[in-house]
Design goal:
With 204 residues, this protein is α/β, with parallel strands linked by helices. The protein is 40% helix and 20% strand. It has a domain at 3-103 and 111-134 and 187-198. The protein is built from eight helices and nine strands. It has a five-stranded parallel beta sheet, sandwiched between helices. Strands 7-4-5-8 form a four-stranded mixed beta sheet, with helices on both faces. Helix 2 (25-38) runs parallel beside helix 4. The relative contact order is 0.21. The structure holds iron/sulfur cluster. Residues 145, 149-150, 153, 160-162, 168-171, 173, 176-178 line the site of iron/sulfur cluster (SF4).
Length: 204
């Protein structure tokens, strides 16, 4: 195991996160299955990692009641499903960055994903490959803006400055997807948030 991965695990544990580290996606699936036997209703925070790894499909196939956002047609229906997701049993998401000092860094527009991370679902499971690890919180924010948010702006064909300048300029553009930055320094209740780390390079 890389030293930075080892340091990250130790510091997350010190900050009351439940942490697992796996070498393969098959092992990640086995852990997810355990959660799905305990928790019934589930929802997702938007995550390229969960899509690229097909873990999202796996959870939908093996989980209980899916509080689904994607199939909702109108904007109001989508918001209602995001509100319902706040009361699900288990919420799956990734993280824009994970500081090796033991913190999660996430940037949202509407804030439904970070709201669920902070409060609501009984259990939150962060699924992230080790490429999301950064030295500290500052470099995590840098990663969240200059890699995660920037690439998402490109993906959604937004008119934000980063798309034209190929870097984040900390804009206040109305189409910005960076309205809210959340640093999760510790998990409360203790171990409510689990972090599943695995070797690889997925997501933004
Ligand atoms: S330029 Fe604006 S929208 Fe783009 S990453 Fe920076 S803050 Fe976010």
């Amino acid at each position: 195991m890389d030293r930075i991965v080892e340091k990250t695990i130790i510091n997350l544990q010190k900050h009351y996160f439940e942490v697992y580290y796996y070498k393969t996606l098959e092992e990640v699936k086995e852990k997810i299955k355990e959660y799905l036997q305990i928790y019934q209703s589930f929802a997702f925070g938007g995550s390229t990692t969960l899509v690229q790894t097909k873990l999202k499909d796996f959870i939908i196939e093996n989980g209980g009641k899916y509080i689904e956002r994607e199939s909702q047609k109108g904007e109001l229906e989508k918001i209602e499903s995001e509100r319902a997701a706040l009361l699900c049993d288990i919420y799956f998401m990734s993280s824009n960055a994970i500081a090796s000092t033991g913190a999660l860094i996430n940037i949202d527009k509407r804030g439904n994903r970070v709201a669920s991370l902070i409060f609501g679902p009984k259990k939150v499971v962060i699924i992230a490959s080790t490429n999301k690890i950064t030295k500290d919180i500052d470099s995590g924010i840098e990663r969240a803006k200059n890699i995660a948010a920037y690439l998402n702006c490109k993906r959604f064909n937004l008119q934000t400055p980063c798309v034209y300048l190929n870097k984040c300029v900390d804009c206040e553009h109305p189409d910005s997807i960076c309205y809210t930055t959340v640093i999760t320094k510790m998990s409360f209740p203790h171990k409510r948030i689990s972090v599943i780390l695995f070797d690889g390079n997925y997501g933004f």
